[in-house]
Amino acid sequence: MTEHDREKLLGAIREGVKAAWPICLGYCPIGLAFGVVAQKAGMSPAEIGLMSLLVFAGSSQFIAVSLLSSGAGFLAVVLTTFTVNLRHLLMSSALALHLRRVTTPWITIFAYGVTDESFALNLARFRSSGPGSDWDWRRALVVNHVSNLAWVISTVLGGYGGAFIPRGSFGIDYALVAMLLGLLVFQLRGGLYVLVAVVSGFTAVLLSLVIPGNAHVIIASVIAATIGFFLSRGRGASQRAEPVDES
Asked: Minimal CA–CA distance to 69: which of 31, 42, 36, 104?
């Protein structure tokens, strides 16, 4: 590696870390909360760290711990987390437009670290890249994995800290429900989102009365998402069909 290449690499690391630190600050309290909740669900700090390292998806990890705590089976946990993480296909597709020249091994490492927050930051930097910005895949990769490191460390620390918190203290028993509700609220960006959330919740409650286990969660999610898709599609078609006032 030449001196120029070394300086280029160090510059990418510096800029990536500088861009990632706000994400890390946001991950720390959520990661600590997850670690505590997971510890109360019976997971060890090592298991918590391994789960964060392999999954690296906050909402899916919270949901998985909730399902495991309720005695859900392997298939229910896998299908539910898979459904929740389907959005990563769309995020990765959008980022792929800016990573056409990156080799497959680096693409694989990059894809592992894609989350909602890193996606939003990197996509914005890629789109604004120009004469005043040289944001590239190396800086984006640093953002992904510095954020990943902060998440893994904070969840493990939460796992250790949870051992010193008595069950029921500080309302920790409902922390998971509160966290999931908080994640839901941040996703409500319009009336259609609220409708999908209400339909999903109402359908899940009704199905839980007739379907044993946790399958009703997956079924309700698919039904609500399908309804939301067709409503969104219909609304888009009606807006395109509206006459344009040329006066």
From this structure: 42
Locate all alpha helices (DSSP H) within the chain, ordered by sequence: 3-40, 45-55, 58-69, 74-84, 87-96, 104-112, 116-128, 137-162, 175-187, 191-208, 215-241
State both tokens at 226. 């399908």
Task: Determine how many CB atoms are found less than 10 A away from the CB of residue 55.
Answer: 13
Q: What is the pLDDT of residues 96-133, one digit of tens each?
A: 989 988 999 999 999 999 988 898 889 888 888 755 55
Q: Which two tokens stand for residue 49?
A: 């760290």
| Cβ atoms within 10 Å, residue 131 | 5
Amino acid of residue 188: L
Instruction: Give the pLDDT score at 139.
Output: 92
Q: Which amino acid is at 70?
A: S
What are the b/e assignments for 188-225, b being 16+ CB within 10 Å? eeeeeeeebbebbeebbeebeeeeeebbbbbebbebbe
Check if the beta carbon of residue 78 is closer than 8 Å to that of residue 67.
Answer: no
Q: What's the whole-model pTM score?
A: 0.70
- Residue 160 DSSP class: H
Listed by start position, the domains of the chain span: 3-187, 188-240
CB 145 within 8 A of CB 42: no
Alpha carbon distance 241, 177 (integer Å): 42
Cα atoms found within 13 Å of the Cα of residue 242, Cβ hemisphere only: 8
Closest CA to 84 of 111, 55, 52: 55
Q: 11 near 142, Cβ under 8 Å?
A: no
Q: What is the DSSP string of 196-226?
A: HHHHHHHHHHHHHTTS-TTHHHHHHHHHHHH
